[in-house]
Amino acid sequence: MLHIFSTLQNALHKVLISTLIVLLSLSILVLPAQNSLAAAPTYRQPMQTEVGNSQESETAREKAYDKEINVLNEPNGLEEEYKENLEVYEETQPDKGIIQEAKSFVEKVTGQD
Asked: I need a labelling partner for 5 at 20 to 30 A (CA). Which of 20, 66, 104, 107 fits?
């Protein structure tokens, strides 16, 4: 009886090992065939611009370019432009950042407030 159980155990062991080897072999063949999401093609439509607005956008770009050139030619132009941009940013971003809070805290502690 013991001999029968050991024979069955050996046979079951061989079947399990063979099954695992077959499954691992199949998984090696199947997994590389799948494309990753990063390599998946995108199905976005290309951006289309209207032909009528191209002339208007060119003139708007030219005006913006001329404005920036004038700012660069002025002695304090960059500093004024920076202040204007900073004011606009602060209006659109009401929350103070951690850097501004740290600066105000340091000023308060050092008595420069």
From this structure: 20
- Give the tens place of pLDDT for each residue, 87-99: 888 888 767 678 8
User: Are 76 and 83 within 8 A, CB to CB?
Assistant: no
pTM of the model: 0.32
CB 78 within 8 A of CB 72: yes
Longest dimension (CA), the chain: 104
Three-state SS for 25-85 is HHHHHHHHHCCCCCCCCCCCCCCCCCHHHHHHHHHHHHHHHHHHHHHHHCCCHHHHHHHHH
- CB atoms under 10 Å from CB of 81, counted, come to 15
